[in-house]
Specification:
globular, Rossmann fold, 2 domains, 3-stranded antiparallel sheet, single chain, 9-stranded mixed sheet, about 375 residues, alpha/beta, 14 strands, about 15% strand
Length: about 375
């Protein structure tokens, strides 16, 4: 407390007790290319790769990508990565981290490096099916990001085990897309098929910017896609969608993402939809970062009230954006931090416990209209 030595009016600045929680970013991707080391070293000119293996570069446009990782080329691995990053930016992406490896044995080191880049929320290794498990485990461990996985380029759709062939595992922290998409390739001056994960990551970013992370990244056009490796019917998708295999389909002349499920679908229960998984990641990370000021504060009812006030203000903003379900904030969420959640034995451990419940918005995946004849009696 300041000392007052002479009569007068004194104006003091005091803390308001409010520390607004700011939502974190949700659409920064991390791309891992797979390029044979001898091919990477053999390139020259516009197709040369100047970045050492496993080194990570922040890329904000495709021109920057070409500077470090080369242009479209006849090197299959490099070309796949180039198309993925190009598709990311064309479909709405703005920032991504890019690296390359020469084999699966390098993936652990790259994912360790990704852990230190807190803003990454999407991870993809375009076309590399061998590292899908490692990427899934990384996202699940971090708890604030999701893996976008590719399927194999060719698959026997007539086989009875098509779901088993496409789905490597179940995970609420991964989403798989099928089939590959056709794009124009400047290197060969022809149309080729490429894995869709880079384009899908761009759609995630586009939907996040236009609507919010609570909106399912589906029923969206894939910019740059000319055709599909396989044309899927509704009947064929009926066998894939429940297992969380997100289909890309050609509908009304457009190539659309026609699935919004995490890998495993119904098996993931409350996290079977991508937008719910990503929205919870967003809420958790935002609240975590926005309440760091609480650490070492006196664990008193005054602190509990500040926590309730700040988290409630943040969730009210989310509700007003349409990200939470309910006609009032009271229906959309609750925040409980009081003597019940913080009894003496909890306080003695140096802990302050807050219980938060939110009513999430689920996508209208099945739109049903019931029609019947109406006989006018007049």
């Amino acid at each position: 407390m300041p000392s007052y030595l002479s009569p007068g009016v004194y104006v003091e600045e005091v803390a308001s007790g409010s520390a607004p929680i700011t939502g974190v970013g949700t659409s920064i991707a991390g791309f891992i290319g797979t390029i044979a080391a001898d091919n990477a070293q053999a390139n020259s000119g516009a197709s040369a790769i100047s970045v050492p293996e496993t080194a990570i570069k922040l890329i904000t446009n495709f021109t920057e990508f070409k500077k470090f990782f080369g242009d479209f080329s006849n090197n299959p691995g490099q070309n796949t990565l180039a198309h993925a990053v190009y598709g990311f930016f064309r479909n709405g992406g703005t920032r991504c981290y890019v690296t390359w490896i020469s084999g699966k044995e390098k993936i652990a080191g790259v994912l360790d490096s990704f852990e230190a880049i807190d803003e990454i929320t999407i991870v993809a290794a375009p076309g590399n099916l061998d590292v899908r498990g490692e990427i899934k485990d990384h996202c699940q461990k971090m708890g604030d990001r999701i893996a976008i996985l590719d399927s194999a380029e060719t698959i026997d759709l007539s086989s009875a085990g098509v779901v088993e062939a496409l789905k490597p595992f179940d995970s609420a922290y991964a989403a798989l897309y099928f089939p590959w998409i056709q794009v124009y390739d400047p290197a060969s001056n022809s149309n080729i098929y490429v894995p869709p994960s880079g384009h899908i990551a761009g759609i995630y970013a586009r939907v996040d910017g236009q609507r919010g992370v609570h909106k399912a990244p589906a029923n969206e056009t894939i910019f740059g896609a000319l055709d599909l490796k396989y044309s899927l019917s509704k009947a064929k998708q009926d066998g894939l969608n429940p297992s969380g295999i997100n289909c890309i389909r050609k509908l009304n002349g457009n190539i659309l993402v026609w699935g919004a499920r995490t890998l495993g679908g119904d098996a993931n229960t409350e996290f079977k939809y991508i937008n719910i998984r990503r929205h919870f990641c967003y809420l958790r990370d935002s609240i975590d970062k926005g309440t760091q000021w609480v650490v070492f504060e006196p664990n008193t009812p005054e602190l509990w009230a500040k926590i309730r006030r700040n988290i409630s203000a943040f969730l009210t903003v989310e509700w007003r954006k349409g990200a939470l379900f309910g006609t009032t904030p009271q229906e959309a969420f609750y925040v409980k931090c009081d003597a019940e959640t913080n009894p003496p034995e909890i306080r003695d451990l140096g802990q302050v416990v807050t219980e938060i419940g939110v009513a999430v918005v689920k996508p209208a995946e099945f739109v049903v209209f019931r029609l019947s004849q109406w006989a006018d009696s007049k």
